[in-house]
Amino acid sequence: MIGLRKILLSTVLVATLTAAAKDEFTMLEQQQISIETPGLFAGSAAFSVDFAGLRPAEYCFPLPVGKAKAVKDNWLEITTAHGDAVKAMFSGTVRMSKKHQTLGNVIVIRHENGLETVYGYNAQNLVKVGDEVKAGQTVAIVGGDKGRVFCMFSVMVNGGRINPATLIGINSHRLLRQTVMFKKTAFNVDLSVVTPDKLGDKALSAAGKAGDMSTNPFAGGNKFSLNLVNLDAGEWCYPLAGAKVISAFGRRGGRRHTGVDIKTRPNDNILAAFDGVVTMSQTYSGYGKCIKIRHRSGIETLYSHNSKNLVKVGDIVKAGQVIALVGRTGRATTEHLHFECRINGQPFDPGKIFNHATHSLKMDVLTFTKKGSSVSITSGKNYIAKGK
User: Fold this and answer.
1) How many CB atoms lie within 10 A of CB 302?
2) Which of 151, 194, 227, 299 has the most beta carbons within 10 angstroms of its beta carbon?
3) Could you tell me if residue 217 is inside a domain?
4) Residues of the domain holding 145
5) What is the arithmetic mean of pLDDT over 28-40?
6) Domain end among 197, 230, 245
7) What is the mean pLDDT of residues 182-204?
8) pLDDT for residue 387 is more than 60
């Protein structure tokens, strides 16, 4: 095991090497699927990738609505409907795009993190060698063989296929939030998990009725809408009953306040705003004791300065469930709840969802539009919805 400093340095080295090597590909690289990546291990025998640090927009399952199963030789067969779009798992550069003798129309993408992904049996390739692609970008139309519609998918390191289940949840399609080290040996590349994933597929499977909590809301494009008035009474809850706002979202003393501070009394019950899965429950820098919950809409909510956290990572929670007690841990001058709403990792005003004066859900349609790494949000009134 190498130290954290070396891990970080080797990760930077991989990013630098692959960035330098990706602009041009030799004829052999454009023709062969399994081929060593030039310079990948030039400066070190090992490198690591921090998958936990990726934002939702930086990963996409190749066929988000497909059904995946592991087949021999570390391939993943993903079945879906005719005409579905095949998407890039990570950002990168197309190294190969051609008709292959065994995989039909196939695409190989070399990624900035040192990995490569392979997408085979496509009905049509939509990208060419040298194209820069983003995670979630459509690169092909799904094809198949012998009347079946599927994509044959694999992940490679230095030309060798690795077990995809070590990186992704085959049933949930979720990227495992872990740090993985890749070490070159005499004959292959060994994989080891440096920092394991704390949120397993089992927990996400338990969320079945609540929907897929790991879904990237922008997987289908750069825009999606959330109609708040379609939520029934039991599907939402103001996070602190009887609270008053003591600090709003926005600029505060020359600094950006990324949430809203609401206050009642010490050790009051903090409630989950929506159904979801707990992805963080720990002491976190100035936030103190902090909880983060991911919801099936793709929105995340954060609750901090708690005196006590009552849920752990992987717990499935319901709207209105008590998850923590009000405190003043971290950087806080009084007992209160700092409450945040986030989309694509970006905080936005919780006042777009809740009316803080009446502690009610707003009757709005929120439209989220992603441009690059930023997301803009617009609100529109809609009083016609189920049960309203």
Assistant:
1) 21
2) 151
3) yes
4) 4-197
5) 94
6) 197
7) 73
8) no
What secondary structure does DSSP assign to 73-126, as a single string? GGEEEEE--TTPEEE-SSSEEEEEEEEETTTEEEEEEEETTSEEEEEEEEEEE-
**β-pair partners for 125:** 140
Last residue of a domain, one of 165, 197, 229: 197
Q: What is the pLDDT of residues 335-369, one digit of tens each?
A: 999 999 999 888 999 999 999 999 999 988 899 99
Q: Are residues 87 and 161 in the same domain?
A: yes
- Tell me what pLDDT residue 213 has: 52
Query: How many structural domains does the chain have?
Result: 2
Same domain, 267 and 365: yes
Q: How far apart are the first and last CA of the chain?
A: 58
Span 272-319, pLDDT tens digits: 999 988 888 998 888 999 999 988 888 999 999 999 999 988 888 999
CA-closest candidate to residue 236, choices 291, 287, 299, 188: 299
SS3 assignment, position 77 = strand
Pairing of strands 255-257, 322-325: unpaired
Token representation of residue 223:
């825009």
- Two tokens, residue 102: 């065994």
Are 190 and 215 members of one domain? no
Residue by residue, DSSP assigns 318-370 as -TT-EEEE-B--SS-SSSBEEEEEEETTEEE-GGGTEETTTTEE--EEEEEEE
Q: Which residues of 168-205 are buried (b: 16+ CB within 10 A; e: fewer)?
A: bbbebbbbbbbbbbbbbeeeebeeeeebebbbbbebbe
Residues 110 and 22 sit within 8 Å (Cβ to Cβ): yes
User: Residue 240's domain is classified under what CATH number?
Assistant: 2.70.70.10
